Amino acid sequence: MADVSTLWEVGLPLAGTAGGLGYAKVRAPQVFWSLVGLPVTRVRFAVTYHATMDVCGLTVQPSRLRAFMVRNIARRPDAQPVPPKVRRIRGTSTGLRVTLRLPAGLEPADVMAASERLRHAWGVHSVNVTETKPGFVELRMTGYDVLNRVRMPRSRRRLSGPMTVPVALREDGTAFVRDYLKVPHALTLGANQTGKSMYQRNLVAGLARLPVALVGIDCKRGVEHRGYAPRLSALATTPEEADGLLDALVGEMEERFDLLSDYGVADIWALYEDVRPAPVVVLVDEVAELFLTATKKDEERRDRMVTQLIRLGQLARAAGIFLEVCGQRFGSDLGKGATALRAQLTGRVVHRVNDKQTAEMGVGDIAPDAVVTVLTIPPDRPGIAVAGDTSGGWSRIRTPQLSASEAAAICLAHAHLTPDLPSLAAYRPVLPDGIGADPDPATA
Q1: Contact at 8 Å (CB) between 232 and 225?
Q2: Region for 325 from its dihedrals, namely left if φ exceeds 0, alpha if ψ lies in -120 to 50, beta otherwise
Q3: Structure pTM?
Q4: What is the pLDDT of residues 141-152, one digit of tens each?
Q5: Is-contact 361 332, C-beta < 8 A?
């Protein structure tokens, strides 16, 4: 009886612990990783590091000086191949970060090419390699699929710059940040029900909190942008209105160039704060609607609108005007000027698409190896996309859930931040009395 009692006393807690860990692995992977995955991975990494680097081809022959020291001081017959030097190991809530110093003869591309082998060797979900500075790379390992349930990092590094917005989560567990000073214009592509609208909502929700002017062009009668009206400085819901609004934006750009010329500076960020005009982000939803024509008059309007968009893409960055273009497909088949406009859109975010040609339109010209990743995005995981820019770097991202009503509520709560641009006053959405006024200090 004593043996049975002891068995129950020991077995039940062990079974409960195992069951709890199994539940946490499925329902709370972050907790399971912190309790089990991280300690196991750190031990496995420390024990197998040298052998793993060797079999993955990430070791090099030692320098002559090192070989001399081994033979004559350490009294060993031969020096072993040298792996990258581990400079720092840091555990996170989603994975493990390892900083490596590359020896002479290795480059970051070598480590990137071996990332899949490293993932299997250390039993982690993914390994992403990032060059931090010349001679150094960081291995960003994730212990589980962080894109399955998106939770934006709580402790984010302080965002630098006046035009920086965290929009989505990268597959390495870091935030995907939209920085307009680094990537002024961007293109978002994707088929229906793939998460384009979710991405736009998160972007607008972040921009609404900043002292910037938002301009909407939504030729689907405003079904996407109408909810943002309290935070919009201008809104066009038909091609005719879009034509006039684009002309007004070009006029605003030219006025700002006159201001820059008067002060002898290159862009608005070099102006004194009291004379600096508010930055403007132009949100174009379903850009193909601007290219569609039915009559000769429509063709003239289309050519004029495309020309104005291209001018904004080429020149408006210095004037503090930025483009966010969204659509299902965007290529030369839309008509004259489409390719020229796309070339000005530095940033690319491509969700699941219906054909290879659309994936190539989005990322094929900046990161050809990302096309396959776009084509393998599963249809049952909306919000997943490939984000890249013309530097050639890219990564998988996923936007957190945000409903249209939640995005509209954020815009309404920050309506008092909406700048008044006289040149766009004719296109300012009409709002009920009281909306957009400064909040009462007593209740703010």
Answers
A1: yes
A2: beta
A3: 0.84
A4: 999 999 988 888
A5: no
